[in-house]
Amino acid sequence: MDGKTTIKYLQEYIKAKDYHPELVKDYFLKLTEEVGELARSIRKDLHPSKRNEVKKIIDEELWDVIYYSLAIANCYNINMEEVIMKKEEINNKKYHNKITYDPYK
Question: Which of 12, 25, 33, 74 is the most buried (most CB within 10 A)?
Answer without folding.
Answer: 74
